[in-house]
Amino acid sequence: MLWKQKEFIDEDWEDRVFEEAEWEGCRFVRCNFREAVLKEWVTRSSVFEACDFTGAKLNASHHEGTAFLNCRFRGTDLYVSRFASCKMTGSGF
């Protein structure tokens, strides 16, 4: 699933599966990704503001130039995930 230049506000994707998704230049505001499966997920130059990733599975995900601003990652599985040139201001792990 490839998404480019999309914007989502107050979306609820709790428990959804987005394996091997690629999101480029997208913006997400107050979106719920609790318990979502985002294995091998790729983001480039995207912005996540006040999003909740509590308990999500981000195994082997790759993020480049993406901003996670004031996001929640409590209990999130980040095994073998890579964050390159990302901004994590105000996010809690």
Descriptive report:
By secondary structure, this protein is mainly beta. It has no helices and nine strands. It has strands spanning 2-4, 7-9, 22-24, 27-29, 42-44, 47-49, 62-64, 67-69, 82-84. It has a five-stranded parallel β-sheet, with no helix packed on it.
In short:
The protein is mainly beta and 93 residues long. Helix content is 0%, strand content 29%. The protein has strands at residues 2-4, 7-9, 22-24, 27-29, 42-44, 47-49, 62-64, 67-69, 82-84.
Keywords, please?
29% strand; globular; five-stranded parallel sheet; four-stranded parallel sheet; 93 residues; mainly beta
Q: Which ranges are low-confidence, i.e. pLDDT below 50, for 5 or more consecutive residues?
A: none
What sequence of helices (H) and strands (E) makes up the elements? EEEEEEEEE
State the total count of DSSP E strands.
9
Secondary structure tally, helices: 0
Compute the average pLDDT: 96
Structural topology:
Blueprint lengths: L1 E3 L2 E3 L12 E3 L2 E3 L12 E3 L2 E3 L12 E3 L2 E3 L12 E3 L9
Parallel strand pairs: 1-3, 2-4, 3-5, 4-6, 5-7, 6-8, 7-9
